[in-house]
Structures are given as C-alpha cells and as structure tokens.
Amino acid sequence: MVNQADLVIICGSVGVAFGVFIACLIYFGIKWHKKRARLSRSANEPSLATLPIRTNGSGTSIDFSASLTSSIATSRSPNPQKGLHSTWWNHQNKDGFSSTSGIVKYSYKEIQKATQNFTNTLGQGSFGTVYKAIIPTGEVVAVKMLAPNSKQGEKEFQTEVLLLGRLHHRNLVNLLGYCIDKGQLMLVYQFMSNGSLENLLYDEERELSWDERLQIAADISHGIEYLHEGAVPPVIHRDLKSANILIDHSMRAMVSDFGLSKEEMFDGRNSGLKGTYSYMDPAYISSSKLTMKSDIYSFGIIIFELITAIHPHQNLMEYINLAAMDYDGVDGILDKQLVGKSDLEEVRQLAKIAHKCLHKSPKKRPSIGEVVQGILRIKQKRLMKEDTMSFTSGNFSRTASQIEDQHVELSRITTMNHREMR
C-alpha cells in the first residue's frame, strides 16, 4: 500500500509540474505572438515609420529622423487639446525635441513680451492671427497664434512643427520656434517683410516687374523640388497658392504653411479633400487620391497668376481656356502692368510650362524637376541674349574708338604734310 501511495504522490507531482510547464509554454507563446504581431503592425503602419531627411546640397537639409507616432496618438485622443498637450508634447520630451530640431521652445510670457502684448498685428489667416515680434536676440519674427477652439488647427500645428523641424531649404519659410503654454499654441517664423505673393500681385499700389515674377516662379519651383525630390520620404504640400508664398526683403520667394502637407507614404489614404478649391487638382477632387502631380497643378495656377494677375477666385481658368483658343494666346490676358515692359517670348515660354502643369491627366503633367529645368532654360536664354548684346555693344564701342583714333592720326599726318610743304 505504501508503495502505491508513494507512486500516486510521485505521479501527481510529475503531472502538476508538467501542467505548470505546459501552462508556462502557452503563456510565453501567447506573449511572443502578441509582441510579434505588434512589431509587424509597426513595420506596416506608415504613421509609425521613421522619416529620415537626407542632405540635398549646401544648407538645404538636416540629416536626422523623427517619428510621427505622436500625431496619430493625438488624433485618436477624445480630447484633442488634452491629447496635444499630454501625448504629443510629452512624446517630444520637451527640450529634447527642440535640441534635435534646432527649433526653440518659447514660454507664453516671452511671446507676450516680444509681440508687445499681442498688439502688433500683421494679419489674419485661417490658422489664426499673425503678429510681428522682436525676440531677445533682436531678430524680427512673425508669430502665428492658433485661433481658439480650432481642432483642425491643432493638427496643422503638429504637422508644421514635425515637418519644418526636419525640412530646411532656402526656398522654404524657416520655423524658428513654437510655444505650447497657458492653453495657447503658437509658431514663430522668420519675418518676410514683403508679405505674401497674393498681396503683392493684387495690391494696385505695388508693381511687380517681369524679372521679379520670373525669379519668384523659379524660387517656388526650387522649394517644391526640395519637397518632392530632396525630402525622404517626399512631401506633398497640398495647399500651394499665392497666399502661401511669402516674399522676403530681397524679393525672393519662399513656400510656407505646411499644415495640410503629407508624406508621400500616406498616399492612398482617403482623409477627405483638403486644400483651396480654386487651386485644387480636378483629378484629386474626383478621385480623392493625393499625389505630387496635385502640387504641380497648383503651381501651374500660380504661374498664370504671375502672368495675368487674375485671381483664381475670379475665374482664372476660364481666361486661360479662352486664351488658348484665341489667336493672341496668353498675350491677350497679360497683366496690364507688364504690357510693353516684359519679354513676350519669355512670357509665352513660361505660359507653355504652366499649360503642361494644368494637363487634365496627372500622368502627362511634368515632374517638378522638369518644370525647374524649363524655367532655368528661360533664364539661361535671357543671359545669353544679354551677353550677346553686351558683346555687340562692346565691339561697336571698340570700332568707334578705332575710327576716332584713325581720324586723329590722319589729322596729325595731314598737319605735318602741310608744314613740310611750307
């Protein structure tokens, strides 16, 4: 009996141990499976991807990475304001984000003092009010304050900080700092003394020369080229318009307002139509599919604005279509300020590029690289023409000088002959 009891105890103990072992295997197996599934989702989820930026020429970009995990976490938060201040802001580790991006974090009091208690207003936009400010370094800046209760503005705020913290190019407006304090969201930009292209074009008291317009078109194309071909992954601006092109004191243009921008890796996700209707690609409107060619279409509209000074809200596309059927072509809708003050051949060449950008089929529109090359060819032809004229003018001057010298020499010889005859 004793032997049987011992045997039962031994068998029971072995069974319990085996059961615990099996349970442990199942537990760790489930835990491993969940971890692997989570890693797999992370690898396939664009919002969790690391977004590197490569250097693309001198002074164009900073080579480091940033994660957009936080922006998704915030957008899922039931309370957007709380989500922004806690989830996203804490994820950036406050000063850590500023140090890696080079963007300065300001307090509310610092901004309040810099803007003279928010009294120096520059303008009003969809995002909120823009103020002129002087920061402690003495630099003049523009401060954009998010309008109260703007849920869409919070998302745009995040996008601006995350993108412009990584994207740096001479034709993109530089984000200098930001403020998340006392329930306020503010962005600090470099100050652009000549305001927006829209204001310059439609201000009757200002006159934009053809040279300035051609240079502005070139500057915008370089900014878009960096977004499309210099950033990794490429960035689609999504809201290119003359109001979002800012002009500095040297009349050089910079692309601004990246609140609606998206990385190309988001392509295919239907997040609803975003942008400004009169600049919006018809193919994007019909399909809701966002591509880089949508930016190309918007740029085509801006080029025609530069040529005609007709706002898209004033049926610019109708004027363009009518001009295409008219004998005079684009000459017939040329801005009156440019009549007799511009090179018509250059105007026609730039209009030809714009027409290609507005092609109904996105696939047949040029890439931004091709647009840049087209504009550069116009400028190169001008330089060659100027060099030729300069050369011709120089030859004429030298010839005239030689003739004058010959006359002087002939006069001297004649005088000497008269003296000898005497």
From TrEMBL:
The chain crosses the membrane at residues 6-30. GO terms for molecular function: ATP binding; protein serine/threonine kinase activity. Belongs to the protein kinase superfamily. It comes from Flemingia macrophylla. This is Protein kinase domain-containing protein. It comes from the Eukaryota. ATP binds at K144. Residues 116-383 form the Protein kinase domain. Pfam families: PK_Tyr_Ser-Thr. InterPro entries: Kinase-like_dom_sf (IPR011009), Prot_kinase_dom (IPR000719), Protein_kinase_ATP_BS (IPR017441), Ser-Thr/Tyr_kinase_cat_dom (IPR001245), Ser/Thr_kinase_AS (IPR008271). PANTHER family: CALCIUM_CALMODULIN-REGULATED RECEPTOR-LIKE KINASE 2, OS01G0750732 PROTEIN. Keywords: ATP-binding, Kinase, Membrane, Nucleotide-binding, Serine/threonine-protein kinase, Transferase, Transmembrane, Transmembrane helix.
